[in-house]
């Protein structure tokens, strides 16, 4: 390749720019804002109200069917006559 080639294979690939969004109103948010990860104090207060009212719920853990079976004691076979 010539020195003046259009294609430069020595460049590092570009990193993807991650766009952060407010979880309440979905506006773009800068990491340096005082209310991060929210866009404003209003959205921060709305989120706090959702936590306080119980709108956000952590579900109970899901059990695997194999674990449920292994937790039960084995059944005794019927005696043969």
Counting DSSP E segments of at least 2 residues, the number of strands comes to 0
Radius of gyration: 28 Å
By secondary-structure content and strand pairing, the structural class works out as: mainly alpha
> Unreliable stretches, pLDDT < 50, 5 or more residues?
none
Number of helices: 2
* Mean pLDDT over the residues: 77
Q: Please write the string of helix (H) and strand (E) elements.
A: HH
Shape: flat
How much beta, percentage-wise?
Answer: under 5%
What proportion of the residues is helical, as a percent range? Answer: 10-25%
Ends apart, CA distance between termini:
90 Å
Q: How can the largest sheet be summarized?
A: none
Oligomeric organization of the protein chains: single chain
The gist of it:
By secondary structure, the chain is an all-alpha fold. The protein has helices at 41-53, 65-71. Helix content is 25%, strand content 0%.
Structure notes:
It is a single chain. About 25% of the residues lie in helices and about 0% in strands. It has helices at about 40-55, 65-70. The radius of gyration is 28 Å and the shape is flat. The mean pLDDT is about 75.
């Amino acid at each position: 390749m010539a020195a003046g080639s259009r294609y430069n294979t020595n460049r590092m690939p570009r990193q993807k720019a991650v766009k952060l969004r407010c979880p309440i109103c979905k506006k773009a948010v800068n990491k340096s804002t005082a209310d991060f990860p929210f866009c404003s104090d209003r959205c921060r207060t709305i989120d706090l109200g959702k936590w306080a009212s119980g709108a956000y719920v952590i579900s109970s853990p899901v059990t695997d069917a194999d674990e449920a079976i292994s937790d039960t004691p084995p059944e005794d076979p019927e005696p043969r006559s």
